[in-house]
Specification:
about 25% helix; 4 helices; 9 strands; four-stranded antiparallel β-sheet; about 160 residues; alpha+beta; globular
């Protein structure tokens, strides 16, 4: 019975911790019972950036979850970064709410910025959408996409 209570207690504590963004005060009595090492949990900042490609008409939104990459994208938009300015990453063949109009998005954990890339991963936003079923094979091997003509246009607040 004690094991079931402690499991329920851990579930309740984890839920409360998640709901408060990691800012949960634990009473001293509860801290004395828990002998496991404490790990600080901090919610990572997330930011959305829009980019365009060949004709400037189509817009594609990426989500960055790494602070260094968020800072890098902001330096691109400010004009401070002039070299590694094109986004690339691994395609996930699934629509997401923050990138309306497209059946795919980039995995936030794989997104970075490049200056020069090999041709095999280059394709426009529309061409990628139109050939999404082929992505990951000979077209965009491994699902890696690096649109050469891409350029960040704005951060979405």
């Amino acid at each position: 019975m004690q094991t079931l209570r402690s499991r329920i207690g851990r579930v309740i504590a984890a839920t409360a911790l998640a709901a408060t963004g990691g800012m949960l005060a634990v009473p001293a009595a509860a801290q004395a019972v828990n002998t496991a090492p404490t790990v600080a949990i901090q919610a990572a900042e997330s930011a959305l950036f829009e980019f365009t490609d060949t004709n400037g008409q189509n817009r594609f939104v990426i989500q960055l979850t790494d602070q260094a990459k968020i800072d890098h994208a902001r330096r691109i938009l400010s004009g401070e970064e002039k070299n590694r300015i094109h986004p690339h990453g691994r395609i996930i063949k699934r629509a997401v709410p923050y990138n309306p109009g497209w059946s795919y998005h980039l995995d936030p954990a794989t997104i970075d910025f490049f200056e020069v890339a090999i041709e095999v991963c280059d394709a426009s936003i529309v061409y990628t959408e139109d050939h999404l079923d082929e992505a990951g094979g000979p077209f965009l091997p491994g699902g890696h996409w690096c649109p050469w003509s891409s350029r960040l246009t704005r951060e979405i607040k």
